[in-house]
Amino acid sequence: MTGKRADNIVILTGSGVSAESGVATFRDKDGVWSKYDYRQVATPEGFAADPALVHEFYNARRRALPGVEPNAAHKALAELERGLKARGGKLTLITQNVDDLHERGGSQHILHMHGELLKSECAHCGAVTVSAAELSLDLACERCKQAGGMRPHVVWFGEMPRHLDEAADAIANADLFVSIGTSGSVYPAAGFVAEARALGVPAMELNLEPSENAHLFTDVRYGPAGEIVPPWVSEILG
Ligand code: APR
User: Fold this and answer.
1) Residue 60, Cα to own-chain centre: how many angstroms?
2) How many degrees, rounded to 5, is the angle at CA 232 between CA 227 and CA 237?
3) Which atom of ligand 1 is nearest to the CA of 28?
């Protein structure tokens, strides 16, 4: 950590921040990709080949959401957002996660760069609607009333993640970039740390174990997010 007080912080989270809430990560042992072939359930080609399989993959994860709760890490990040704002600073929280645990943990401003489980979009009219409903090809769009075009509002492999401009601006103006609970396997999210370092922004990794780009971080702390994030937030908020 540099001596300068960090007031403008950018945080990138991954599935590891939700692990202690009971949401499966992707690449850990018994992770999501050990049970499903991502090409079948998380690509436009997979959706075109078998939309019912893809809908059921996301319907099952959407159905599980009410049964999980935000953990101490989610709540600490919400406290960090409030604390930085109170002292004239800013937290930009970018998440790769499609669950709503950051929201339910109290965070207000969240950039879901891989989309959101609780939203759906219509291929016919482009409408994005908040819906916890089970998605299927039979479901008609609330706006254009056409069926057959509904898909999860989730970014699949090969599609462009969202909020990249806002993320780049935030990193360029940050005092500190922090990566929490991500393996650093998927770009462009995994490239944010290199972007920060190239701009002279200190970078910190809070993870269960070293990520694939751990060598790029200026400061690292390892352990479960629920245990290491709250004390780090207390340090930042002094
Ligand atoms: N606390 C902190 N970190 C944890 C915990 C925990 N309790 N449990 C696991 N981790 C760490 C793992 O060590 C790993 O580095 O979280 C990371 C999870 O990595 P992945 O399973 O690869 O998940 P993520 O990095 O979020 O994947 C990125 O890949 O499949 C796509 O779109 C999907 O958003 C996802 C993206």
Assistant:
1) 19
2) 135
3) 21
Kindly state the tokens that stand for 206.
């809070």
Catalytic machinery residues: 114
Ligand 1 pocket check for 177: Cβ under 6 Å:
no
Instruction: Examine the domain organization and report whether 164 and 228 are in the same domain.
Output: yes
- Kindly give the distance from the C-alpha atom of residue 85 to the centroid of ligand 1, in angstroms, as a whole number: 28
Count up the domains in the chain and report the number: 2
Residue 2 lies in a domain: no
Q: Give the structural domain span for 137.
A: 32-67+118-154
Q: What is the pLDDT of residues 38-59, one digit of tens each?
A: 999 999 999 999 999 999 999 9
What does the DSSP 8-state code read for residue 147?
B
User: The domain that contains 146 carries what CATH number?
Assistant: 3.30.1600.10
pTM over 0.70: yes
Whether residue 81 is found in the same domain as residue 196: yes
Distance separating alpha carbons of residues 1 and 4, to the nearest angstrom: 8
